[in-house]
């Protein structure tokens, strides 16, 4: 949830608020908070567009990993960070439901992690003219939530929960509140 992305996001304020609540509860429980920060030609490090929105600014104990691809695991060290901390379940939220969120959640499952997709904690771009090949933002979010509600991965647990229902345990993966 970087400045350039939030500026074009559907339900930006509500999504940022949901993620901010997750961060606060995770930090309070001593669970790790890991932020992935896109850097590319449109979001160059150090620019205002690249910065994470102030409401989600990393705390000193948080881990921030730069990424250059939609897949949050590709070339970021995310898998190593999670395994080194003994994390077995990841909470996925953020921008670009059908691109970054989907790629990262699916890769987490493929790499052996259980996944919680935060139903009100991911969003996509506003599509003002509605004439493109993409689904409307609210349809895309609902579509992906439903896919993950019905997705079965052998040996993995996949949950779709609103942010208010995601709980955390100290230094561990998400739990139930």
Automatic annotation (TrEMBL):
Q: Would the keyword Cell cycle be found if you checked this record's keyword annotation?
A: no
Q: Which domain of life is it from?
A: Bacteria
**A GO molecular-function descriptor:** hydrolase activity
Q: Does the keyword Hydrolase apply?
A: yes
CDD domains per the record?
A: cysteine_hydrolases
Q: Gene3D superfamilies recorded for this chain?
A: Isochorismatase-like
Q: Where is the Isochorismatase-like domain?
A: 1-125
**Alphabetical UniProt keywords:** Hydrolase
Official protein name in the record? Cysteine hydrolase
Upper classification of the source organism reads: Bacteria, Bacillati, Actinomycetota, Actinomycetes, Kitasatosporales
């Amino acid at each position: 949830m970087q400045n350039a992305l939030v500026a074009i996001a559907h339900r930006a304020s509500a999504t940022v608020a949901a993620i901010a609540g997750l961060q606060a509860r995770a930090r309070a429980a001593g669970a790790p908070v890991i932020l992935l920060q896109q850097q590319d030609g449109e979001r160059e490090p150090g620019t205002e567009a690249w910065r994470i929105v102030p409401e989600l600014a990393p705390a000193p104990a948080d881990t921030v990993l730069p990424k250059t691809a939609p897949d949050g695991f590709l070339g970021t060290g995310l898998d190593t960070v999670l395994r080194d901390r003994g994390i077995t379940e990841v909470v996925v939220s953020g921008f670009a439901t059908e691109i970054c969120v989907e790629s990262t959640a699916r890769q987490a499952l493929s790499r052996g992690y259980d996944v919680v997709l935060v139903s009100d904690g991911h969003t996509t771009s506003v599509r003002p003219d509605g004439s493109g090949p993409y689904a409307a933002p609210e349809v895309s979010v609902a579509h992906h939530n439903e896919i993950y509600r019905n997705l079965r991965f052998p040996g993995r647990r996949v949950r779709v929960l609103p942010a208010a229902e995601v709980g955390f345990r100290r230094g561990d993966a998400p739990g139930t509140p």
